[in-house]
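User: quick one, sequence for these tokens?
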């Protein structure tokens, strides 16, 4: 066979195994399992070293073609590469066999039982020929490497891959089992080709050798080894593709499960916020009722009794100034009590709805807070869910307080708009504004956080925008369904 054809054969042979090694190295970097990395790394080393060995063989053939000479150590170096590559193959095959041994076919043990007699025969045959002076040290070493490392190493690798294919089939991982089976077949054939060594003075090599194989078939043994290398590399590439797709599917499934978990947590958080807001408002309403029904009546009775006492003492009594002052204090306490009851739970909100309650807030709280509040509406007003009305009212109430305390503005606008599927509340001012990206240290920012949580408790959206010296705008949008 011409040098050009041999060049192509050795190049393809080396490329197949070197590519195999690179693929497996990349696979170990993507795989997070330490056991899988430990399993695949020896096979990757085998592919890389064996590929380099075959490319060095091209260099040797080229040198022969040019009638050049190579230093003696070059042959020993190539042999060393071959030795370590097959050691790595042995290690991979044994590990693969151990990992999947419960899926080994019982007939496989027959093959394992024949290995020790075969290896003993080869060892005696090669060493006897060497001591008889019929083969050189490098021929002896090369023969032992192929006979005792390559043949059994590839065979055990084939058995391990076959067991792995059985395990993949049992786990319904098709077509991984098919690719592993073909890889096992490739290594089995590769093991057989390693029996074909250059002719030398041993019994085994005199029966089966490269020269005799070439005469019998007309094709160098390297061609068959290249074909097995291509079969191995291609099917392992397809197996790695399957594993990558499997990892991507597992990752997508894990991400989907995580997303569902986050959605469940968000739903639980929203339900909890809703429950807290509802419980808070119920408690406010209870306290407001108790203040109105008990404390307010007590203060009213106290004020009336003071009036009666004033009439009994007459206008010139020395106690009249004290009684008048106590009566004024009683009136102030009564007014404060009514304001407290309103702040806790305004009756307008329960009796008349959100729109009148906000209008009353603008008319009554504006002067009290020193604000000129403009109240605007849009759309057809209607009653919505009680809790949603409460949330919008509390946001407006808290916003007015914040404007009075921090905005340094005397004007504010409340804009309530009704739409088919949502109601929108906007509160804006012309104050000093603030940096919305600033991290607020407690208790700063608690008001905004409370408004946001209230809006989210009813499935609403809370937005705040502000710019220094250009005021602040707060917007709450709540999806609604018109109550029948």
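Assistant:
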């Amino acid at each position: 066979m011409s040098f050009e054809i041999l060049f192509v054969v050795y190049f393809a042979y080396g490329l197949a195994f070197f590519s195999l090694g690179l693929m497996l190295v990349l696979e170990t970097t993507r795989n997070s399992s330490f056991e899988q990395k430990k399993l695949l790394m020896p096979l990757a080393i085998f592919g890389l070293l064996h590929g380099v060995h075959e490319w060095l063989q091209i260099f040797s053939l080229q040198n022969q073609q040019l009638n050049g000479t190579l230093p003696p150590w070059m042959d020993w170096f190539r042999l060393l590469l071959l030795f370590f590559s097959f050691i790595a193959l042995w290690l991979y095959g044994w590990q693969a066999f151990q990992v999947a041994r419960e899926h080994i076919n019982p007939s496989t043990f027959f093959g394992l039982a024949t290995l020790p007699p075969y290896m003993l025969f080869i060892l005696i045959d090669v060493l006897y020929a060497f001591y008889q002076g019929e083969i050189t040290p490098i021929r002896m070493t090369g023969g032992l490497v192929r006979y005792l490392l390559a043949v059994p190493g590839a065979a055990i690798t084939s058995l391990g891959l076959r067991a792995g294919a059985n395990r993949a089939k049992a786990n319904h991982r098709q077509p991984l089992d098919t690719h592993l089976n073909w890889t096992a077949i490739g290594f089995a054939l590769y093991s057989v080709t390693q029996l074909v060594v250059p002719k030398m003075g041993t019994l085994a090599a005199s029966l089966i050798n490269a020269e005799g194989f070439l005469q019998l078939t007309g094709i160098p043994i390297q061609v068959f080894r290249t074909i097995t290398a291509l079969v191995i590399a291609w099917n392992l590439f397809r197996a790695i593709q399957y594993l990558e797709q499997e990892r991507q599917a597992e990752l997508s499934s894990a991400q989907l499960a995580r997303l569902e978990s986050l959605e469940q947590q968000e739903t639980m958080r929203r339900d909890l916020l809703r429950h807290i807001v509802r419980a808070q408002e119920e408690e406010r309403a209870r306290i407001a009722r108790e203040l109105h029904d008990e404390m307010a009546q007590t203060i009213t009775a106290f004020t009336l009794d003071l009036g009666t006492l004033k009439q009994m003492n007459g206008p010139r009594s020395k106690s009249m100034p004290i009684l008048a002052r106590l009566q004024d204090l009683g009136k102030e306490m009564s007014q404060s009590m009514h304001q407290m009851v309103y702040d806790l739970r305004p009756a307008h909100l329960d009796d008349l709805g959100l729109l009148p309650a906000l209008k009353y807030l603008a008319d009554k709280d504006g002067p009290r807070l020193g604000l000129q509040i403009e109240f605007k509406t849009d759309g057809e007003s209607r009653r919505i869910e009680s809790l949603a009305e409460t949330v919008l009212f509390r946001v407006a109430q808290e916003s007015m307080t914040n404007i009075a305390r921090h905005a340094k503005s005397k004007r504010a606008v409340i804009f309530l708009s009704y739409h088919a599927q949502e109601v929108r509340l906007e509160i804006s001012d012309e104050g000093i504004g603030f940096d919305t990206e600033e991290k607020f240290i407690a208790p700063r920012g608690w008001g905004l956080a409370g408004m946001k949580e209230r809006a989210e408790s009813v499935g609403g959206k809370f937005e705040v925008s502000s710019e220094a010296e250009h005021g602040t705008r707060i917007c709450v949008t709540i999806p609604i369904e018109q109550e029948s």
